[in-house]
Each structure stands twice: as structure tokens, then as C-alpha cells.
Amino acid sequence: MNRPKTTSNEQPATRNQQPATLRYYDNARHEKWRIPILGDDAALVAFNKPAGLPVIPERWHPDWPCLRSIAAERLEIPLYVVHRIDAWTSGLVLFAKTAAAHRELCRQFAQHQVEKTYLALVKGEVGGDALTIQRAIAVHPSRPGVMVVSRSGKSAVTAIRVLERFRGFTLLEVQPQTGRQHQIRVHLQAIGHPLLVDSIYGQSEAFFLSAIKTGFHLKEGEKEQPLIRRLTLHASALRFQHPERKEPMTITTPEPKDFQAVLRNLRKYAGR
């Protein structure tokens, strides 16, 4: 599978050879968060956010810990939010450490100069090897927080490329060219290939081995546990210009264990 790589003329976000990991016990959720630091220097810091942890405070639970509050507490510095990903999406999130770096990174995002790459596991076998989806997105007229394709919405563009096909499923590389709320999820639903797990846009809350393994059975009284119980979407890479050094750089992060487990079982039981 092709992965975005840091090329020879690009510099990593940190010169530290041993990236740290933030560990935090979330009393509100009774959850232990393990948050690897992917890059860290005087201007910025990048994290591999676990699924389930919001980037900023949630609307309904504003006092609960989020990635920004945990990181700011552990690093003992203020952090500026540059961009966000959904709470139940895993992967790369970038923060600025200074007001100047924040302004420059936000400018790059606003002017679409940042290349964002995601991995997405979707339902169905996507036809063709590459596709650009151009469909405007608006807020759902009767469901707050839900987005929908609409001619009256804001323009949205998403490029997808097939990385691997299975019987009934596809692994995609996805690069959103714009930054609308839930853009990837809405666009994939619009072309008939929603995320494998997406309770809002795909009507599926989890993925089980029994869905692909012939003859699967449980012992009496045993309950099947899902291979994955969150959005099958992972923010895998960002390519941008360092806000101070003005050097092109790429930060990448591998898919987490649950995402890898689904891929491993799809290759074993649903390979083509």
C-alpha cells in the first residue's frame, strides 16, 4: 500500500529522535488516553489523536478533557488550535505554540495550501481507481450537527484514490481539498460508499468478524466483540510549510491497532 512519505528535501517537524507519549486518565469518561507526539519544536506540535477524544471541548460536556486541554496541561504551555478532526476519527492533529505560527498555519489551511491525507474503509467496491467528488454541503434542515449534500450549500471538493479492494469493501486514500464539516463522510455517502462504520452517514455503529468470516460461531453464552467500534477514518498525513523555517514538511502517522485489525481480517476473509 502506498503511503505519504517525507521526501529527501523535506524536514521532519521535530529533531527529537525519541518522540514522547502523553498519558492521561480521563475521570469523566473512565478512559486512559495514550497520545503519541509526532513532531515538536518551538513553533508547533503534532499529535496522533486516539479515536474518541475530541480536539476541543464538546458542546454537551464543555468541562470534559479534550486533546488541547490534556496537551496544554502536560506540556505546560498554551496551544493554538490550527485545525480539527472529528472526535471519533483517529490520527494527526497539529497545534501552534506561538501566535505568529498560528497565524501562518491558519493562513495555509484557509488558502488550501495544506495537503491533508486520510485513510478510509468504506462499504462496497469503489469503481475506478481515482475520483474527484465536487458536491456542495449544507447543514441538514432538521437535524442539528448533521450535514447534507445541497445545491444551496458551500462548495466542497474531495479527491479519492483506491488503495485496496476486498469483496464488498474498499480501502481509500482521501484528500479533502476544502474543509467543510463532516466533508469526507458526507461525500462518501453521496457516492454510495459510506464509511464502514458511521452511525450517522452509514447506519452502522460497529464492524464484526462474523460479517466476513464464513462459519463464524460463538461459544454458548459468549458475546461477539466488534473489530472496530468507531469511524473507519484515519488522518494519516499533513504536508505544509513550516511557519518559521519556511521549509516543506510532511508528518505521517500509521493507522491504529483497531484499523489494522479490520484490514488484516479483510485481507484474510474477504480478499479478492
Write a brief structural summary.
The protein has four helices and 13 strands. The protein is an alpha+beta fold and 272 residues long.
Structure explained in plain terms:
The chain has helices spanning 67-75, 99-110, 183-190, 257-269; strands at residues 21-26, 31-40, 44-49, 80-81, 90-96, 115-123, 130-134, 137-139, 147-149, 157-166, 169-176, 233-241, 248-252. It is of the alpha+beta class. The protein is globular and about 60 Å long. Residues 1-18 have low confidence and may be disordered. The chain has one domain (21-212, 225-269): Pseudouridine synthase (2-Layer Sandwich), CATH 3.30.2350.10. The strands form two sheets. Strands 1, 2, 3, 4, 5, 6, 7, 10, 11, 12 and 13 form an eleven-stranded mixed beta sheet that branches. It has a two-stranded antiparallel sheet with strand order 8-9. The chain has four helices and 13 strands. A hairpin with a 2-residue loop joins strand 10 (157-166) and strand 11.
